Amino acid sequence: MKKIFIAILISCSCSLLFGQEGLETRDVYKQTSDIARQVRMNQDTQIGMKKSKLNFFLDTEWKGGVMFQKDSVVLNNYLYRYNIYTDQIELRSVVNPNKIDIVSIGSHKFIFIEFFSEDSILNQGYFELLINGECKLLLRRKIKFIEGRDDIDAYGASSSTSIGESLFVKKGDEPAVLIEKSKEDLKEILSDKKGVVDYIDKQLIIFLTEKKIKEIVEYYNEI
């Protein structure tokens, strides 16, 4: 009788355990499904907003504000805007770029530094860090705006935007300088190290591609 009671107890315990595991599995599945559904909704929302010319925000500009959380935490130094379409409060942080060493966003790394613009004016801005070291290879992006005209082939042309990319080199504490993507220009920039000019001259360079520039900058850092 005692053995039968123990067997029944073990059987009930196993049923309860499997039942709990099944419940936890269903909870995890439900949470995963909810997240996936929310992602799809957000994607559909973004697509719908892009197709429409309506203003979906209470204020189109990001505005400073303060968030008071229920756990008594106060969040400052953020910008907010209210999205009426999604009924969401969106926020972005205000980053002091002068305190930044490196910012990692996904697989991209960025630094904020001084650089000489195309017209030789000293400026500051964000660059993607392609190669780190004594000599840094950097990628600078900027928005190019082309204003529409009404007299092109009698049909007119609408305004458009595109993203322009330029490569820069930064040595030590010097401001970054633009690479004009010419062999002679790169030789002049990197001529301070003995052997680099000879290395560049030995390369069979028809077009100075980003890949080839990376190889040269890596060689500069190795010697």
N→C terminal distance: 85 Å
Dominant shape: elongated
Strand content: 25-35%
Q: Can you give the helix content as a percent range?
A: 25-40%
Overall radius of gyration: 29 Å
Q: Order of strands side by side in the largest beta sheet?
A: 4-5-6-7-8-9
Low-confidence stretches: 1-21
Give a quick account of the main beta sheet: strands, pairing sense, barrel closure: 6 strands, antiparallel
Mean pLDDT: 79
Order of helices and strands: HEEEEEEEEEHHH
Please describe what this structure looks like.
This protein folds into three domains: 1-46; 63-93, no CATH class; 98-222, no CATH class. Mean pLDDT is 79; it is low at 1-21. It has helices at 2-51, 183-189, 196-202, 210-222; strands at 63-68, 74-83, 88-93, 103-105, 108-116, 122-131, 135-146, 160-171, 177-178. With 223 residues, it is an alpha+beta fold. The strands form two sheets. The protein has a six-stranded antiparallel sheet. The chain has four helices and nine strands, in the order H-E-E-E-E-E-E-E-E-E-H-H-H.
Short overview:
The chain has 223 residues and is an alpha+beta fold. Helix content is 35%, strand content 31%.
Name the features.
223 residues; alpha+beta; 3 domains; 6-stranded antiparallel sheet; 3-stranded antiparallel sheet; 9 strands; disordered N terminus
